[in-house]
């Protein structure tokens, strides 16, 4: 098993594996995921059954409509939620409205876009660690409200009453802006679902959230993955912001996604 850093702050490419399901290999992948945030296996070419089996090595797998494989596509004939997936073009963390967010996500590339369609990752661990001490003091005790409505308004600033009611049917959640992890590290709970910071005016709140997003997504904290068919990428959803780069819906870009239940609550 050989490893190569994908960037200075995050990510590792793994190669030279004879048996991806071997327990020793899995243990090393778990450690790499914890400290590097993003794992890449070029040309893994996993079928759905093997991807599910591999995912279960990392934890319980979330089901969508009774299925463990979720097809990521902007083609409504492939994914009825295609319109909703346009929200993934903005920086986000999955599960910010859940008490226990998703732990990790695995994507397998089945078809790729000729233009665009890459995936970017930004480490909020590294972003927090590199903040000046005065900035850490400023934000350490703040809380932030996350909501589905905030992410959807970024796509549709003039929704209908019906759309607003649908968005608000998913309860919002107040969480620490700085998530102090049980392993002693800290990450930032930000992204497009971040609606406002408790106790600040709307303008102050938006300015600070935008400032933290821009800080966290500067080049030194980011890895951009350009997909090839067969690639397998897994990331720590709790510490990595991520987003898809825009692509034409007619490109037939299709990813098969498995999602791992979380095991650490926001606190």
Automatic annotation (TrEMBL):
Q: What's a single GO MF annotation on this record? A: dioxygenase activity
Stored Gene3D superfamilies: Clavaminate synthase-like (3.60.130.10)
Q: Which metal ions or organic cofactors does this protein require, according to UniProt?
A: Fe(2+)
TauD/TfdA-like domain mapped to chain residues: 8-259
- Pfam families per the record? TauD
Q: Which InterPro entries match?
A: TauD-like_sf (IPR042098), TauD/TfdA-like (IPR003819), TfdA_dioxygenase (IPR051178)
Keyword list (alphabetical) reads:
Dioxygenase, Iron, Metal-binding, Oxidoreductase
Q: Which family does it belong to?
A: Belongs to the TfdA dioxygenase family.
Official protein name in the record: TauD/TfdA family dioxygenase
